[in-house]
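Example S7 (structure tokens).
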């Protein structure tokens, strides 16, 4: 996928996910929710249940899939229902002084899958290296690992998740 096609898809994804929210919270869906509750109550405590709506873009030429949205409802260990949400959140990078924005877990240079960048520092497809020609642009103090804690140049360890930023891998915006 290219930056442009991603941009184009995002508008539709937002529209569709808004509609899905309306549907999941509607009275028409109430029957499904109560059936889900009945099912979870009939099962052993060790089990949880998830209903997911997934939107993927399939690239026929390169034979790969880019997940754009994964949302639905799921049950907690105590049996309550909560909303699940994963929308391929964007991540900013700097390569050769230029800013690139791509979905998380993708390579900002070749747009192939590249997850766990903090551990696997080299893109498996094009060989670009995090901390060398490619850096993560952090322009907020939100922890890039858990998205809950706060992190900064002076406080490089997240209090929420314990993640420690390697200063060689980031550029502070
Ligand atoms: Zn790459
Ligand atoms: Zn964190």
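Recovered sequence:
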């Amino acid at each position: 996928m290219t930056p442009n096609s991603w941009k184009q898809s995002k508008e539709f994804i937002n529209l569709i996910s808004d509609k899905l929210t309306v549907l999941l919270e509607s009275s028409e869906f109430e029957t499904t929710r109560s059936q889900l509750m009945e099912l979870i109550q009939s099962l052993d405590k060790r089990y949880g249940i998830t209903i997911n709506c997934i939107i993927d873009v399939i690239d026929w030429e390169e034979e790969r899939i880019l997940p754009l949205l994964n949302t639905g409802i799921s049950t907690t260990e105590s049996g309550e229902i909560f909303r699940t949400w994963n929308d391929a959140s964007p991540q900013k990078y700097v390569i050769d002084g230029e800013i690139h924005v791509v979905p998380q877990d993708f390579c900002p240079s070749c747009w192939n899958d590249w997850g766990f960048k903090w551990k696997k520092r080299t893109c498996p497809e094009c060989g670009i290296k995090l901390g060398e020609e490619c850096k993560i642009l952090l322009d907020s103090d939100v922890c890039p690992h858990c998205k809950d804690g706060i992190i900064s140049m002076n406080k490089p360890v997240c209090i929420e998740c314990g993640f420690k930023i390697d200063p060689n891998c980031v550029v502070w915006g």
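Notes on this example. Helices lie at 3-24, 30-42.
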